[in-house]
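Hi everyone, sorry if this is the wrong subforum. Our group has a chain we'd like a structural model of before ordering constructs, and none of us has done structure prediction before. Sequence below.
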Amino acid sequence: MDSDWTLSQHARCIVAEYLSSLHIGVDQKGRCTTKYLFKFIMKLNVAIYRLSRGKVGGRMRGFKVLLLTTVGRKSGKVYTTPLGCFDHQDGYVIVASNAGLPTHPAWYYNLKSNPQVTVQVLDNIIPATAEVLSGEARTQAWQQVIASAPSYADYEKKTTREIPLMLLRPNR
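Answer:
Right subforum, don't worry. Here is the predicted structure as C-alpha cells:
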C-alpha cells in the first residue's frame, strides 16, 4: 500500500516536472489548475497539428481548422491558436465568437493591435494581414459561416455583442 502511494507521488512529480518544462504552470503540490490544463491541451493540439501538417486536427465539425499565430499586444509574446476557418475569395474568415461569452477572445485584440499574422492551413504556412469585416461583406460572410457551422448562430444568441469576423488576407 505504501509503495503504491510512493509510486503515485513519484508519477505526479514526473508529470509536474514535465508540465513545468512546458511553461504551462503547476501549483506547489504539482496539480494543474483548469486554466493551465486548458493551455496545455491547446499547446498539445498545436504541436500535433504542426507535426501532422494538419492531418490530425485540421478539421473540426466539418470545417477547416487553421493555426493563427499572433503577437500579444501587451506581452509581445508569440501565441498560436487553433481556430475554425472558412474559405473566402480573398483568404480565410475566422470568427471571434469566444463561445458566445460577453468579451472578445484575446487573439482578436492582438489582431486589432498588430494585424500581421502567420497562418497555417494544413501544410501551408502563409503570412497574412487580418482585417475586421463590416457591412455587407460581414453579412455575406456570416451567412456562409452559419450555413457551414450552425453552432455559431447559437453563440450569437448567447451574447449581446456583435461577433466580429476577421478576414485573413494572404500577403502577396
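For your construct planning: Helices lie at 2-21, 34-52, 106-113, 135-148, 151-158. Confidence is low (pLDDT under 50) at residues 1-8.
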